[in-house]
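Shall we go through a protein fold together, starting from nothing but its sequence? Label the sequence line and the structure token line clearly, so we can match residues to local backbone shapes. Would you write everything just below, so we can both look at the same thing?
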Amino acid sequence: MTLLRAKENSASKLENNTSLLFLLSISLLILLSFILFLFALHLDQLDQADYWHLQVETFLNLNHLLSTQSNLWFNLTQLGDAFVLLPLFSCLIIWRPQAWAAIFAAVPLAAFLSWIGKLLAAMPRPAAVLDHTLFNIVGPTLSSSTSLPSGHTLTLFAVITAVSVILLPQLPKRFQTTALISALSLALFLSLSRVAVGAHWPLDLLVGAALGIISGVSGALLVQKQTRWQWLCAPKQPILAFIMLLWALALLFHSFRLMQESVLIIWPAALSALFVSAHLFGLHAHLFSSSKKHP
């Protein structure tokens, strides 16, 4: 009863968070605009060039402005990869397991929106239409027609929004808006790395952010309202310890592959996954020992 009441209070506080509802409303308007834009593209009312022509100057200015810290931005852009980002949040398994479950509950919608958006828009990336000498490219040259929306931005906003929705009700109400704005500002700052490395147009980030917020809110609500996601919340699940260990080893292997490119951000992710794995194995060992003593 206490757990049920806590969930109901959390949902009630979510509904009363006007800042979050405002952001969700703006995100839904951007989604609607994106859908109308896709219709216009497929009805030949607009051309793909119309989309990126409007942004060339802004893209070049931002890219040049951020190019002085190329290695920093290349490290930060790795955080838009769920393979790297999620282990950094894996401590939530121990501290706030419901927030961890909310991240994974957001994944299905986030993955679908990213895939269908890229498929239908088929928007060329900057490197596909601009002379490479005009802007700074960091890392691999991406020249496919998968620019819109930005998947990295979508991932960042989905994860940070899902976690924020779960954790915000636990803060005093006067701090909730400030905490939400700070969290989403961090996501926006990290998303700028996609322009800095020459991979995306600025509006790709805006659409990705909106879709990410929608996905994050949906993940948090699913966990709060549906019990089928609760197994993801339980640190006592033995499989989680093995998953986090394998994840950490995969990250370490990945970091060695990128060693020449000075990608250091992967190491904290790997160490976080190792720590959580060790903690979970210790927890299971303790539970096993207790069960042997008190059959």
